[in-house]
Structures are given as C-alpha cells and as structure tokens.
Model the fold of this input.
Amino acid sequence: MKRSMLYIAILFSSTAIGQKTLEDTIKIKEVKVESSSPFILKQNIDSIALDNPSNKDLGEVLARNSHAFVKSYGMGSIATVSLRGAASDHTNLVWNGIQLNSSSNGVVDFSLYPNLFMEELSLSYGANSLLQGSGGIGGVVEINNTVCFKKQQTISLEQQLGSFNFQSTQLKYQIGNSKFQSVSKLFYRTAKNNFSYEDIGVEGFPEKEVDHGNLMQKSFMQSIYYRPTNSWRLEAHYWYYFSDRNLPNMMTLRDLEENQKDESHRLSLGATKYFNQWTLKGQIAYLHDDLRYTNNGLEGVSESRNHSLRSLLDAEYQFKKWKFKGRLNADYEESFHPSLRRDLDRKTISLFTEASYYFKENLFVNIGFREEIILEEENFFLPSVSLNFKAYENIDWWWKLSAAKNVKYPNLNDLFWQAGGNPNLKAEESQQLEIATNYQKSLKNWKTKIDLALFYAEIDNYIQWIPSNLGYWTAENVRLVQTQGIEGGIGVAKEFRAWSNSLKLNYTYTQSINRTKDNVQDESLGKQLVYIPEHQANASYRFNYKDYFLNYDWQFVGARYLTTDNSSFLPFYQLSNISVGKSMQVKSNRFQIQASVLNIFDMDYQAIEWRPMPGRNYMLSLKWQLL
Done:
C-alpha cells in the first residue's frame, strides 16, 4: 500500500510529454493527415478508411487496414479481434480513454461499432498499451471523438444500398463557434444477409441461401464541447446503441434459430485544464450493456446485464530534460446473469506513472510503473522500460527497444459461471520484449513511411475452457503460451497538381505456440494456437484526380488451425474490393457518389469453420453535405 500511495503522490505532482496547444485546425475534404510519434509506436488509421462506405463497421476497418486479425462469424455476426497472437479478450477497446470491454467475459464485438461514431482510430500493440490500462496483452484499439472549435454549421446525410437487402442511413449535424460545439449523430441499418453459398457439408455441394440472417441496428450519439477560456475544455457524450440480429446457421446445424439483441447506454463527462507546462484531465463514464439471447431449443431468454462506472485522472508535466506522465483509474463493475453463481461486482484501482529523461534530442529513456489493485482480491506490479534513439541526426529514423510486464485478471464468467467457472484461477501474466523502428522521408511531392517491429512475449497461466470428467467444460490455467513475430508496414504517397495517389501495405507474421502439456495424450505441445494465422497482409491503394477517386483494398489471411494438435485447418483466403466515385461542389452543397464491388473475384471461403461467407456483392453510397 505504501508503494500505491507513492504513485498517487507522483501522479498529482507530475505529467505529460509536452505542453498542449489550443490552436484550431482546418479540415480539408474530411481527410486527416496521419500523425506518428517515435515515442509511442501507434498505428493510426486515416479518415479515408473510416469514411469508406465499403467498411461497414469497426471490425472491417481493422481487418483491411491494420495488423489485427479479425475473427468474423459471418456477415452481420459477431467479430472479435486478436493482436499479436493473443486471445480476443487480450484486446482492449478504449473510447475517449474509457475501456469498453465486457465486464462479464472481457470480449468486444467489433461489428457493433459503426464508423460514424469515431473521428480517430489507432492501435497500440503489446507493451505500448500499458498507458491505457492492464489486460491488453495483445494491445489496445483506441477510438476518439474530436472537434474543431470554429464557427460552423454543417449537415451530412449518407444513404447506402447494397446486395442482400442492405440499407444504411447516417446523419450528422454539427453547430458551434470558438467556445461551444454540438455534434449529433444518427445511424440506422437493416439487412437480410440472404446470400447464396455452396453447402460443402452435403454431397454434391448444392447451392443454398442463408435464410436466418436478418439484421437491424440503430444508434444515436450526442456530444457537447465547451471552452469557457483557452485553458479549460469541458465535454459530454451520450451514446445509445441497439442491435437485433438473427445469427446465421452453421452448415452442419440447419434447424437451429438463434437471435441476439444488444443494447448499450454510454454516458461520459470530461474536463481538461491546461497550465503553462502541464495538463490535467479528468473523465468519468457510466456504461450499461444488456444482451438477450434466444434460440428455438432454449426455454425462455438468456439475459446478461453489465453496469460499469469508470473514471480516470491524467496528468502531464515537463521540466527541463524530464517529462512525466501519470494516470489514476478507478472502476466499479457489476454483472448479472442467471448462470453466474450470484450477482457480482468488482472494484479496481490502477495507478500508472512514466518518467522520460532526454539525454539529448535524439536519445531518451522511458521508465514506467503500473500498480493494478483488485480490491479485496489481489495486487499486481507492472514495470516497463524503453530506450528510444534516432539512428542519424539528419534522418528521421527512430529505433525503440522496450520490455514490460502485463497482466490479465480472470473475467467474472471465468471465475463464477455455473457450471465450469473456477474461483481458484490465477491471473494471466505476460512478459514482453520489442524492437521497433520508424522511418519517414519527404522529398518534393513524395512521402514515404516505413514501420517494422519484432516482438516476443510469454503468457503464463493462460486461461482456457476444457472438457472435464463432470460432463461440462471448465476454466483452467492450462498453458504457457509463447508469441513472437514481425509487423511491417510501408506507406507511399505522391501529390502532383490535380492528382494524388497513395499505397499502404501491412504484413504480419505471428507464431503463437503452446509450451506446456495438459496430460500424456496432449499433442498440442509446440503447436500453433487455433484460429491464429501465421501470415496475414493487407494493402490499400487510393487514387484521386480532380473530383474523381478510386479505392482498391486487398486482404490476405493465412491458414488457421482448427485443432490443438494442428491436424486440420482452414485454407488461406484473399479478398479484393474496389470503389469508384465522384465529388461535386454546388455553392455550399457537397455531393459524393460511390459505387463499390466487394469480393471482386467471388472467392468462396470460410473465416470460421462451417460458417458461410458472401461472394461477390455490390454497394452504392450517396452522400450530401451542407457546409
């Protein structure tokens, strides 16, 4: 406890890595320039990918533009994200600094997040996620709402139509001045998802149609920003989301009819105070998530409810060659489900402090400490250290060497689910090493960026649900998992008079290997974990000429093993999408039309075994803006 009090003292006497400015920025045609920092290696997804209608949700954006592996159960169905070979509950999702992972199972369904509700999207991999909290052993996905303080009144309306009775309507209204901004967003989407597929589970591979994939989603967000003086900024966000979807059948289960309803209320309040050399920011949020699941073989409704109250206090300070950053998190969570042994709650306090010392402008070291306190249960001490240096004084080429420890405490389902929950589970602990480099070069009309990272991690006490002698599955600490691999990215862009183009490539090689045996018959030792591809890649090409544009996206996902002994697998697949469009300006009105062809080559593939996926399909988008 003395150590915790020391961190609190440091937190309130220090902070961040630089003095923030309050200058307004101007957005041009809704295209944001990607920013990169050699200090914390982030992968920033630009607004072109977020605004592209062919990327229907956050899961699809990540699958086509990042190193993340997105495990999708089909069109409109659940989509989870794995980073650096870790499990899906080792990926944290953070909204304006507030973690959104489920209190009960720790997982995020990324198909439930429309791109309309975020202005910024970035990923921090491995130990780079520690600032945002513990548990993100693979990394963290950050979504943020931002605003420009200037006099404006804009309306944006977008209508999308696509194959399989897909329809989507999006409305955004923003009004404000140099002190006040209001942003309102509305979203509504429906689809039948009645695509045809070859049923490889039946002799002769007859063509069938998905007949139980209906989807309806609606959402609303209201954001208020107020800047009474140049040194104060206040903000409030309310986000409501509802989804009603039928889950398509597996090819081997044709008579099962499943339905899932997800409803969320999220309220966030924040305040930021700017001083001469330091910044103080506070945030508090209430989260309510309700999930209702039914199927024709289940009596009644399986309903789970989660309530969370999450808060944070950030501080940043700079003094001569020293830079300090501190964060205090305090969370309270409740979870209710008939299969839990009782109504459960959890209280967590987390303290983070990081100090950076600059030996000179191109050489500095970061030392960080996080204390994770699960009240009435357990404490964890998580150190981190990194050395950052510039290879050559006149070349923008940075290197980073880092080591850190992270922890993932068992979720409430793992501990208390009936039957199979195990209250004696240990926390999953991870030691992580990383070597990363970032190179950037600008020459006349050309811009080049290269990122490369080599990573290694061990996850001890890996939690897995396994069959038991009692006839049901139980949660156990059964594995020591070793993950290692390479992440590489190249970006090239050129602008010349009336035209511009850009090309981005991402490649990921991941080994996620089991290093322990459960029993004598266990043949998983030294084998790749299931549903973690060793190879994956994606590329995006953008071309603009005057008011015309063309986008091409390519995605490759390598083979995924289906069994722990790696005796069976799903083959690799690759997908291509293309979009063409035109923008028009008529006085204060801007119009944009875009036509897209998805899965151009009509590839027949499965992302999950026995889950059919759509072939070639089409989409048309019309967008109007009043500026």
